UniProtKB/TrEMBL annotation:
Family: Belongs to the BtpA family.
Pfam families: BtpA
Domain of life: Eukaryota
UniProt-listed InterPro entries: BtpA (IPR005137), RibuloseP-bd_barrel (IPR011060)
NCBIfam families in the cross-refs: thylakoid_BtpA (TIGR00259)
Organism name: Clavelina lepadiformis
This protein's name: Uncharacterized protein
Amino acid sequence: MSIKKFVDIFKRSHNVVVGMLHLEALPGSPRNKLPMSKICDVALREAEIYVNAGLDAVMIENMHDVPYVKSSEFGPEVVAAMATVATKLRHEFPHTPMGIQILTTANKEALSIAKCVGLNFIRAEGLVFSHIGDEGWIDSNAGSLLRYQRTINAEDVLIFGDIKKKHCSHSVTSDIDISTTARALEFFLVDGAIVTGAETSSPADLQDFNDVSAAIQIPVLIGSGVTKSNVHKFLSANGLVIGSHFKTDGIWYNGVDQARVEAFMREINTLRQEMS
């Protein structure tokens, strides 16, 4: 993918800030307590904080649906619920770049929602090689996903893929370093690579990020652990996907904290001005 397609969507080539909307537990998941109307209300309220603070994009994810299961094991209610929230967000914020991830490895489901609702990108797991997650063995799926993308004419939806992703064991591919994994992602026609730390809120290793950036021409995003205090290290990344740092006390399961969001955006905007 040329960087032009990335810039056409996000209006900048580097340090695009993507705010995570961790949806309240959806129907069918063990912690679900709210009706869909309330789940949508929370998402809309938090999206408004992000948009008003000047973030470049938002992304929805069913992170409260613990314990996670692979897409073959959850019911159609997950897709229906995610599509409902996405539709309301797109209607309320028609010009904001938006993305979606559905846990776990529900890449086709996410792509179908993006296509139908008009979202701009998805975050996908398990695209190249295989790994073991909390949910068990995850097979690679880039080939089938991109064929599905062509089938539903969703090639305008960008696919960003995690490599050596957090919360997973990669011992089975320990002989393949992260740069080689990134090159495989690029070779398999994926639109961007996401580098993470070992778990949610853990910063990505700076050397991993530098190695991946040097290895591929497609965009590289940081997918965990970016904060106001360390963002200066990752300004050369094409994108910064931020969830935990924007929450009350910096804990992912809390609500979005407007003051933390605004403080972060003041910091990154200052850094952007210094770079220009």
